[in-house]
Structures are given as C-alpha cells and as structure tokens.
Fold:
Amino acid sequence: SLSSAPAAPAAPSTEVEFRDLRLAVYRICRDSQTREELATELTDFLDREFPPTEWAVGEFSAAGFRPLASTFRETPALPPRVVDDARAGESLARVESVAGTLTLILEPPRNGSTLFALVVKENPRLPARVVLFLEEIVQLAGISYGARESISSPEAAPHVESVDHDEQAPHRSKRKALPS
Structure:
C-alpha cells in the first residue's frame, strides 16, 4: 500500500539526472551575489534534491569548519580525525557513527588559504556516484566562492592598498609616482 505522504527524493542515478543537477549548480554559482548567498542556495538545493540527510556549506581553514548555511539541527562538530585528514590535504574525509556517516568534502588545497567546504551527515549513506558529484559541486562552487572573495573581500586587497586608505592626504601627496 502506498502512503499519501510525499516521498523523499531518490538519489540521482542516470547521467541525464546528474547533468540536470550540474546545470542547476552552475546557475546557482553564476547567480549568487555573495558567499553567504552561494552557501544558502547550495544548502537548499542539496536538501531538496537528495535523500533525507543534513547539510552544511561553509569554509574550512586551519581553525576548522565554519558553516555559512546549514540544515543541521546543531552546528556540526567534526571529529578530530576528520579535521586532521582535511588539514593533511585530503579533499574527502569520512567517519562512521551510530547517527550515520559524517563526510567533509573540501576544494583542493591552496597555500593554507580558506577553502570552500561541504559537510554532510549521510543517513542513509549516499551512493559513491553521488559523493563524486558532491566533490564536483565543491570544486565548482569553490571557484565561484574564491572569485567572490577576491572581488568583494577587503582582506583580499593588497596590504599596501589598505595602508594607503588609512593614511592622511598630506602624507600621500609627498609620494612620487613610479615610472611605468
């Protein structure tokens, strides 16, 4: 007998389904204006398109994972082994628990900078093809995320530029232009 309750989405299984999802992710990356909007839109997308699970999209640095958007009931706490694996350069770190599989997916490391990251509590465990697709999403969104950071983030500006804005005008006027 069938229930009248809406069924949870099934994990995509065909290349056509993955292509449609990939195009949706491209649109999200292209259309989001800020890092926070990108994280929120991706979290909503993942929650809508994949079987029941919990998602967090954010950034990973030496300090650990910081969610920008999440469907977790509580802030996701990553076990030390997962954090250590990520710090060692792993782009995918998983740990099994009674509550499900906790997975951290990072974009490829870049000289100790903050990385785009996705945390998922898989319950049920996601098929390998879906996890590969999630890695693809993280790489694509990481490019978009990094571009936003370099354009809109004040800390991304060269240090000299920051100093110039804080100095007084009479001091700046004494500087000579460098020949080009």
Notes: The helical segments are 15-31, 35-49, 80-87, 128-152, 159-166, 169-173. Residues 160 and 180 are 18 Å apart (CA to CA). The chain has six helices and five strands. Residues 156-180 have pLDDT under 50 and may be disordered.
